[in-house]
Specification:
By secondary structure, the protein is an alpha/beta fold. The chain is about 45% helix and about 10% strand. It contains six helices and five strands, in the order H-E-H-E-E-H-E-H-E-H-H. The chain has helices spanning about 15-35, 70-90, 115-120, 130-140, 150-160, 170-185; strands at about 45-50, 95-100, 100-105, 125-130, 150. The chain has a three-stranded parallel β-sheet with strand order 1-2-5, with helices on both faces. Helix 4 crosses helix 5 (about 150-160). The longest helix has 23 residues, at about 15-35. The protein is globular, with a radius of gyration of 18 Å.
């Protein structure tokens, strides 16, 4: 099951609402999902929870920040809380953190015009949404066991998958994911 919830701190009614959604909900979801999935996972395989953070999440609350201060700090605190939750129960829960940059579509063919100029100036650059989604699935399926935090460059590079214009490409991708899940389940 994949779920998305969150946003920039300024998009919430209050900072308390942003904190609850950004920090409390993911931590509770990770704990509940791990507990619910545990009996259905192979022995010695924890539940993998992938948290999509922000490129410049900040763990140091005292560091002066020039942009998106509340968002970056909340995302950083959420990352720390999730990793602490994993430390408390590593046999049941594995936390993976993705830190995409600015999301765009169409990087596959290369950036052109204004997007190319903007991409050079953005901290952390851009991540193609198709590459991000493909890489998130690969992360959740355990393709990168030696990584805990995935930066924008990694997400772009390892999310490359050319399915071309074939109409059945996503059906094949879905079957591939289903087969991999079943193989993991029967190990």
């Amino acid at each position: 099951m994949l779920r998305a919830l969150g946003g920039h701190a300024f998009s919430f009614g209050s900072l308390d609402d942003a904190e609850e959604t950004t920090m409390d909900f993911p931590r509770r979801a990770a704990e509940i999902f791990a507990q619910a999935a545990g009996p259905h996972l192979p022995p010695n395989r924890p539940f993998t929870f992938v948290f999509v953070s922000i490129r410049s999440a900040e763990w140091d609350d005292s560091k002066p920040l020039l942009y998106l201060k509340n968002t970056r700090r909340l995302k950083g605190r959420a990352e720390v809380e999730l990793l602490r939750t994993e430390e408390a129960s590593p046999e049941n829960l594995e936390i993976k953190i993705a830190r995409p940059g600015f999301l765009v579509t169409g990087i596959k063919s290369g950036l052109k015009g204004p997007l190319k100029a903007i991409g050079r100036r953005l901290p952390g650059g851009m991540v193609d949404v198709e590459r991000l989604s493909h890489c998130l699935l690969r992360i959740a399926l355990g393709d990168f066991p030696d990584h805990a935090i995935f930066e924008a460059e990694f997400l772009n590079e390892h999310g490359k998958q050319d399915y071309g214009q074939r109409p059945n490409a996503f059906i094949r991708l879905g079957r591939n994911i289903r087969d991999r899940i079943m193989r993991h389940h029967h190990q």
